[in-house]
């Protein structure tokens, strides 16, 4: 096992009715900016619950943060934060609203020339305006991690940043919010969380028995609850297991002491930036082919995954590893997710070389757990995924 230092300061309030506790968690006399997305919270009652809980606070609002939080929209919110001297941010939404809020938290205290530098500087962010979240869509784990991904339409970029200053102070996880999530987003949430676990697990054996079993148990739980949650998002038992699995998939715990890959995400972000494909779907397009392409270096973990998550018992190590890849593709398809780029755009020719060019320009010469996946390899994986 590798050495590690682990700290996760985010307080979690989990369960029915927890939104009421907002008032006791946010410091009295805070001037709060409540941030949300395109309006789902106004249709499903979450907006009312939050406003009621915050009745005794000064609350300003900023709605309209789009899926794949857009830089230019966030700059409008930043203006309000500065003009109104906001001192506490509250994200009410999914990964996009939470990531946008993290950016604003950092941008509010940023001293550089332009806040876009937060995305390009590659410096860990150590301080930000305090912020909390009310999660409305289980998927990204952003509610309990310190990462964020911001999109800039003008330049078709989608870049990540983060750091120890970017953990939410607290997050409210009420599984009842899942009731109103459309099928497409439920499928996205399951696929995104599942891939988060794979990115931290599908590398090479390092003797981290507990981390492996944590990872496998999250994947098993997602596989087990997926049919129930897709069939009936009001099933509280399934919803609560789904929600906590998504948080645990990317709150840092399972990645301690083990190598991480993340190349599927790095390539996937480019597909979202270029074609607007939902984040989770880009991962489903690429994951299987990433594992096929890197079969030799990943086959031990692929076989272990096939055995423990999918109960594959027959055949050689290679047979099991291949079965694990097939099972993964089938799982995504069972959620109604198409796994070829050409299912999403007719304009796919040249995507591989375009992404390779972008990676080269950014100096991303070696991705993956061995830092050996070159831009030309990314090109081939994307071409396999047309
Ligand atoms: O905008 P509204 O109207 O609220 O609708 C949203 C949005 O259209 C809707 N929705 C959310 N909660 C709902 C609901 N609809 C009905 N009922 C509810 N309770 O769902 C749509 C998608 O929301 P979004 O926040 O975009 O989804 P998700 O949580 O999947 O977040 C995706 C973003 O997170 C980034 C992705 O790249 C993408 O930009 N990621 C962030 C990560 C992180 N910070 O750690 C890691 C991930 O790998 C990922 O990259
Ligand atoms: Zn993801």
TrEMBL record:
Keywords from the UniProt entry: Oxidoreductase
InterPro entries linked to this entry: ADH_Fe/GldA, ADH_Fe_C, ADH_Fe_CS, BDH-like
SUPFAM superfamilies noted in UniProt: Dehydroquinate synthase-like
EC id: 1.1.-.-
Fe-containing alcohol dehydrogenase-like C-terminal domain sequence ranges: 189-350
Any one GO molecular-function label of the UniProt entry: butanol dehydrogenase (NAD+) activity
Segments forming domain Alcohol dehydrogenase iron-type/glycerol dehydrogenase GldA: 9-175
A cellular component term, taken from the record's GO annotations: cytosol
Entry's family note: Belongs to the iron-containing alcohol dehydrogenase family.
PANTHER family reported for this sequence: ALCOHOL DEHYDROGENASE YQHD (PTHR43633:SF1)
Protein name: NADP-dependent alcohol dehydrogenase
